[in-house]
């Protein structure tokens, strides 16, 4: 008989080797190509981190400028795709629209779907990173019934995204540099996270040789779930449902109750068993952004901080090593910026695109790459004879 290990949820199986991202869950450490996430979040910016993840080194000023120009020049989507958007129900969740539109990029850009051609792989990489904010912003505009806003090449990656989401023809919209910086930091903190569920989905999908747009669409579909990228939306909704600090004990009791499926959203992580370093930066950022925007006494932030304090003092969360994760505070920042909860997960998808693409490129370039094909533990019937319908 075949011999293999049984590992549901892949808690102890390494599916690949990689040189992109390192996580030490016990120490609460996250490194991209060796650089700590807190340094990247404070000193670098999203497109530089994209370059780092994709190519493995910090670029010189000239190389970075060339990369940024390439990305900026690819931000528009084919005009025909606007019609494709209009085929969705007008109240569609932006994630639903994104799964469809990104998958459909393989129909609109089939000149960059040949994965055996290195140049086509590079073009697909640039197209995905450049067009994802445009697609997410259009999905949002469509869901609220506002006209699409074209990308602008004079704005930074984050500022352009904000402009595409919030500008309307009726009045001028100026992107606040503080808000653009906060947006950029959210993109940076979500850029990659080694073999999480959506990245593993992208790798598994592409192991069959499927084209990059189809594979990234699969990643978006996986990210949507509330245990993964959907947690930021679920977390803010939970904080609002709690509403006031006096109701926190009730929710903590529910999270601990084995008979209640409720979990504290934005809490716990498969790998981090000490703290999530991204959450530390995010919490600080939430304070800064609300302060800079003049939002005082935000009730949701108060509930979040008090919930964190009470949970961390509770033996249940302590013993199970459950800490706030990246999604615990991100929703508060996104709401302060003006995004509805339905846009939280699309923003995660925009940010994570570079991680998916970097891992996809690494995998395709690996000569040992073979189709992903897990085994199973069969618990069904043993062999039995077919029974004719009149005899059942
Ligand atoms: N609230 C209450 N109990 C929890 C929670 C939580 N948020 N998370 C885990 N537990 C308990 C769980 O019930 C289990 O208890 P027991 O051992 O008694 O059965 C134990 O902790 C271990 O949980 P698990 O589900 O086996 O752990 P996992 O590694 O499979 O799950 C997780 C990790 C992130 C899916 C989980 O912690 C969770 O559902 N968290 C809430 C959703 C969330 O915030 N997700 C975002 C993750 S970070 C961003 C991203 O990657 O997308």
Automatic annotation (TrEMBL):
<dbReference type="InterPro" id="IPR019810">
    <property type="entry name" value="Citrate_synthase_AS"/>
</dbReference>
<dbReference type="GO" id="GO:0036440">
    <property type="term" value="F:citrate synthase activity"/>
</dbReference>
<dbReference type="Pfam" id="PF00285">
    <property type="entry name" value="Citrate_synt"/>
</dbReference>
<comment type="similarity">
    <text>Belongs to the citrate synthase family.</text>
</comment>
<dbReference type="InterPro" id="IPR016143">
    <property type="entry name" value="Citrate_synth-like_sm_a-sub"/>
</dbReference>
<dbReference type="InterPro" id="IPR002020">
    <property type="entry name" value="Citrate_synthase"/>
</dbReference>
<protein>
    <recommendedName>
        <fullName>Citrate synthase</fullName>
    </recommendedName>
</protein>
<keyword id="KW-0012">Acyltransferase</keyword>
<dbReference type="InterPro" id="IPR016142">
    <property type="entry name" value="Citrate_synth-like_lrg_a-sub"/>
</dbReference>
<keyword id="KW-0808">Transferase</keyword>
<dbReference type="InterPro" id="IPR036969">
    <property type="entry name" value="Citrate_synthase_sf"/>
</dbReference>
<dbReference type="InterPro" id="IPR010953">
    <property type="entry name" value="Citrate_synthase_typ-I"/>
</dbReference>
<keyword id="KW-0816">Tricarboxylic acid cycle</keyword>
<comment type="pathway">
    <text>Carbohydrate metabolism; tricarboxylic acid cycle; isocitrate from oxaloacetate: step 1/2.</text>
</comment>
<dbReference type="InterPro" id="IPR024176">
    <property type="entry name" value="Citrate_synthase_bac-typ"/>
</dbReference>
């Amino acid at each position: 008989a075949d011999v293999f290990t049984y590992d549901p949820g892949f808690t102890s199986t390494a599916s690949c080797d990689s040189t992109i991202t390192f996580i030490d869950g016990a120490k609460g450490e996250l490194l991209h190509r060796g650089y700590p996430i807190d340094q990247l979040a404070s000193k670098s910016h999203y497109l530089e981190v994209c370059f780092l993840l994709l190519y493995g080194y910090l670029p010189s000023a000239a190389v970075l400028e060339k990369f940024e120009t390439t990305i900026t020049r690819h931000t528009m989507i084919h005009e025909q795709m606007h019609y494709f958007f209009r085929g969705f129900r007008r109240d569609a969740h932006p994630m639903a629209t994104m799964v469809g539109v990104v998958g459909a990029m393989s129909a609109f850009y089939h000149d960059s779907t040949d994965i055996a051609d290195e140049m086509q792989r590079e073009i697909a990489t640039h197209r995905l990173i450049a067009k994802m904010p445009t697609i997410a912003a259009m999905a949002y505009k469509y869901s609220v019934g506002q006209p699409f806003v074209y990308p602008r090449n004079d704005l930074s990656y984050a500022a352009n995204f904000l402009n595409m989401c919030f500008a309307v023809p009726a009045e001028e919209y100026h992107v606040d540099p503080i808000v653009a910086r906060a947006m950029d930091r959210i993109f940076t903190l979500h850029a990659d996270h080694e073999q999480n569920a959506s990245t593993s989905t992208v790798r598994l999908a592409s192991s069959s040789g499927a084209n990059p747009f189809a594979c990234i669409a699969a990643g978006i579909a996986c990210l949507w779930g509330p245990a993964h990228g959907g947690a930021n939306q679920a977390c803010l909704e939970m904080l609002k449902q709690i509403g006031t600090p006096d109701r926190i004990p009730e929710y903590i009791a529910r999270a601990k109750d084995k008979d209640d499926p409720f979990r504290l959203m934005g809490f716990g992580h498969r790998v981090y068993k000490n703290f999530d370093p991204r959450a530390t930066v995010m919490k600080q950022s939430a304070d800064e952004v609300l302060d800079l925007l003049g939002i005082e006494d935000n009730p949701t932030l108060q509930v979040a901080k008090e919930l964190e304090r009470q949970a961390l003092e509770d033996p249940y969360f302590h013993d199970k090593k459950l800490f706030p994760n990246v999604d615990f505070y991100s929703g508060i920042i996104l709401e302060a910026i003006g995004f509805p909860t339905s846009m939280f997960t699309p923003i995660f998808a925009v940010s994570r695109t570079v991680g998916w693409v970097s891992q996809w490129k690494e995998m395709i370039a690996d000569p040992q790459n073979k189709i992903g094909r897990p085994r199973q533990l069969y618990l069904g019937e043993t062999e039995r004879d077919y029974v004719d319908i009149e005899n059942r």
